[in-house]
């Protein structure tokens, strides 16, 4: 089966016209928002969307409102032609790739904040990010009005923030998640992996390895998390990570801090390899 | 024609079921959000909704997130039975009257801010109000998903805030406004007029009278606004207003401050009669 070129729309009006034409045929729609430079993790979300709905729309928009002034907005990798080809191969129906001016025209004045679940973890070192994510995802959801939107568990805190404001604002959509896709050595797929030197790439899988090992130690709830998390931090620094933003044990849904496992929990970490910040997380099975 | 009792729904699920049943018949829907204790100004908005759509939903919800801690949330007047009878008489199809727990369940964590248009005027003395309005109106719009929502020009700054975030968030609805309804002596209808003593009620029409007079002086753009607005303030205090929050000349759309009229403009004022805060506004016709 050969995939034809993927239709690309750039305005909200065009996007709504495409979705309306599907609605008139009684078809359901899944949205897969991304920042582009797609890898197999993104394509797995598209495939999940295809399982759940008749039509899939992927979006590629490197959203300026979720980057801080010193972050990597300008150098964030972009490859629209490559993205379109990959999406076509994955069976996506249309790509929505708006300009910044289409998303944030002059006079734009609205912001969204999500308390609780967006605080700490990545929210501590990137205070603007989740407000920016909430804003752009709200806009994309209300532009496309899909039945379902699919987000990756790789950005686990982001996923919980999205679930929170979608519920709070009564956005009429079902949020689905896709498991983190990994390289054979365990490194979580990420567009930012393209920043890594060969030496950094060799060290990077330690992040996942350390989290999985710690999850095994914490799973039965017999150990306090503190010393285990300290060990993860020390090990990451020992293998060559430049610094560790956080390694934490949290409740899987509310992301409340946990001293030990007593129900569904998640280990989450962010650490720097040279100038590249990597994040990862893994479930901790509760046996209580 | 006799109006039957008005159906009242209290949950988002019931509201969506009612609206969906109309959608399946191809009918359009207008939403009229209110805080209840309805007067002819509200009913005029319902009639406007009936002109513009096949079905009208009124909402009555005294929204706690738009009241400050020292404001009149607890004593805000309520009369649901009276409201339902008036809405039935005006031809409204259903009343949505949710509880606070239905709107803001435990764990609620999301807030919305609108810069620019929500600053100054009522935003200066009531800093929480427009964020609360943006939050509850966003929720009501996404709960009901109407084609059209109707708001009164009496709350002119609120109307412009709503237009702003509806556009910014891509909420799929058309915002329509209804002219301010007035008593024969010019006092703008308001649920808060019920707070006024007889003596205060006799003074209250001066607010409108002064604004209309000032609008006449400013309309041709030949006068600077400052001295005219100072005179309005002095006159309001002279006739018995306890204090004046603001009297301002603003651009009609962006609410930017104006020193003189050079395009569509609005005069807006807020002043206290005893313990009651009254607001009003009027258009200033530009002859340039």
CATH superfamily of the largest domain in chain A: HUPs
At the third CATH level, what is the topology name of the largest domain in chain A?
Answer: Rossmann fold
Low-confidence stretches of chain A: none
Strand content of chain A: 15-25%
Second rung of CATH, namely the architecture of the largest domain in chain A: 3-Layer(aba) Sandwich
**Oligomerization category of the chains in this entry:** homodimer
Describe this structure in words.
The structure is a homodimer of 288-residue chains. The first copy, chain A, is of the alpha/beta class. Chain A contains ten helices and ten strands. Chain A has two domains: 8-178, Rossmann fold; 191-284, Pantoate--beta-alanine Ligase, Chain: A,domain 2. In chain A, the strands form two sheets. In chain A, strands 1-4-3-2-6-7 form a six-stranded parallel β-sheet, with helices on both faces. In chain A, strands 8-9-10 form a three-stranded antiparallel β-sheet, with helices on one face. In chain A, helix 2 (40-52) links the parallel strand 2 and strand 3. In chain A, helix 9 runs antiparallel to helix 10 (225-239). The interface between A and B is medium-sized, with 28 and 27 residues.
